Amino acid sequence: MEGDCLSCMKYLMFLFNFFIFLGGACLLGLGIWVIVDPTGFREIVAANPLLFTGAYIMLAMGAMLFLLGFLGCCGAIRENKCLLLFFFMFILLIFLAELSAAILAFIFRENLTREFFTKELKKHYQRNNDTDVFSATWNSVMITFACCGVNGPEDFEAIPHLPYSSLEKVTATPEACCQRELQSREGMFVNKEACLSGNERFQNRQGCYTVILNSFETYVYLAGALAIGVLAIELFAMIFAMCLFRGIQ
């Protein structure tokens, strides 16, 4: 009976580690996509040190989970106590790191509010000054997502004009808010002159906060569910690893 229980635990351990292996592969793929994505999101990540660091942390965590899932599977099938102990210690460290990251994300969630982004935009945005990282990043966001400002074009009314375009002196709307045939920096303007002259027909009127929130809402819930699932799997894997470790003679 004890041998049957040990054998059952061994295969359950293998199953849990297989899911950890798959979760690590997903995180690794997501991290690579964020860094090499050609649609413009890469520019946002590169310009923001926090996001840039987060992308590489995601890569490292994915690679580590990928490796540990593999080691856990091998340790369970071969009943190797050394591999099982190594797996348990590292999966515990990863579990604690992920839990700490989730707590920090909850604590600093107020930095992702509409008011915070609006305040930062009005304080640091310099319109077409692409030598400024903050302005270049916002221009890339507005072009890629066909949006304007955080709430809409009214966000730019209090921002002083810079002598990068004489047409921009007519309206508060920056060039990046003008409609394009293709949503990229290389895309042709539908009617740039009319846009900068104040014709709303040729401007992107919707705020970026709403557009981006709607675009990523599904993925945020999916990522949250995946994170909870991964934490639960890691917890069960640690329990099975220790039970299997103690059961091996």
TrEMBL record:
The keyword Transmembrane helix applies. Gene3D superfamilies: Tetraspanin (1.10.1450.10). It is a multi-pass membrane protein. GO terms for cellular component: plasma membrane. Keywords: Disulfide bond, Glycoprotein, Membrane, Transmembrane, Transmembrane helix. It is found in: Membrane. It holds the Pfam family Tetraspanin. Disulfide bonds join 147-177. The chain crosses the membrane at residues 12-36, 56-77, 84-108, 219-245. The keyword Transmembrane helix applies. CDD domains: uroplakin_I_like_LEL (cd03156). Belongs to the tetraspanin (TM4SF) family. This is Tetraspanin. It comes from Leucopsar rothschildi (Bali myna).
